[in-house]
Amino acid sequence: MSAKSATLPPEILDSVIHGDCREILPALPPCTVDLIFADPPYNLQLHKDLWRPNLTCVDSVYDPWDRFSSFAEYDRFTREWLLACRRVLKDTGTLWVIGSYHNIYRVGSILQDLGYWILNDVVWIKSNPTPNFLGTRLCNAHEILIWAARSRKAARYTFHYRSLKASNDDLQMRSDWYLPICTGAERLKSAGEKAHTTQKPEALLHRIIRACSNPGDVVLDPFFGTGTTGAVAKRLGRRWIGIECDETYVRMARARIEQVVPLPIPAPMLPPPLDAPRRRIPFGMLLEYGLIAPGTLLRLGHTGHVAIVMDDGTIACNGHRGSIHRVGSACLNKPVFNGWKHWYYQDPQTGEYFPLETLREMMRAMCDTPPGLAETVR
Ligand SMILES: C[S@@+](CC[C@H](N)C(=O)[O-])C[C@H]1O[C@@H](n2cnc3c(N)ncnc32)[C@H](O)[C@@H]1O
User: Fold this and answer.
1) Which terminal residue of the chain, N or C, has fewer Cβ atoms less than 10 Å from its own Cβ?
2) What's the domain count of the chain?
3) Ligand 1 atom 25: the closest Cα is on which residue?
């Protein structure tokens, strides 16, 4: 059981806190954050400059914040910040961590040791990766994100499955994401050079924040860098908190987010009603609640097939007996068949025919109606 939920002091909402996240996070109230996106040091272990064939230096990650003396030191660091994040995460919240082959396997293992429950990993495939200039390895064209709940028991985490699917042309969102790395106007510059070596694309954060939080929720990033998480969170009407140990980046992030104009949040930005998980109604429940009686005849559209409803929740037709789906599928010799849509019953009052899904909706309404209103639903 997690600690009781508290509230965050308003002054830290929508702000960048300068400091080490391992010291800042323990000072925040527990169970107050809805979503964490973490882009920690990768521990790239680069010791010497990389040169292109044309003798220009590759702009890689040599920053002091990415230096650790050993894997053991990196693991200690990882354990500390992951533990501190878990304390502030709500039970309904989730954590996303991004990394590369240098660190993500260590991070994943520590996450599990600390009690997080991995929900998915996502491969961000870079449509425009930096080539391997030495020609000694494969071009490293992806990064890996781990998405985890606070614990195995935290089953009611925020996830807008349906709107994600709708936004993906009605295809279930997959775990391989093709997105370009951050370039062009989005890339912050300082004296004509990249201001930060690992600035992430806003599109990546947009997808995650949209999928795993609601407007008004608190999104925290313990390795804020240029403030990509804060910029997207603000635009999408979320509250945000950034923690960053480098003062230059803190200033940069503040200036960047200052420019962001939140999108208006009228109804279309709110999670659509379809996001509510639909209650599963088995056909047998219609019999149990008297919405359909054994012996009722069901028509299979205009095909001429007629089934009879049995008292055990099966139906029988043309020598087949089973669920409304299996029997329909056998009658029509189709591998996939939705019995709710294609079997019709006759309304005894009007004589009209309706698909079984009409009764399923009535059953759902009965299940979801508070006591006292139930009579009006029927
Ligand atoms: C991989 S970068 C994050 C980049 C960021 N996602 C962006 O889009 O700009 C990691 C950042 O974490 C910061 N950092 C490293 N160790 C930290 C710590 N212990 N606490 C807070 N920030 C830290 C570094 O200064 C660096 O800016």
Assistant:
1) N
2) 2
3) 246
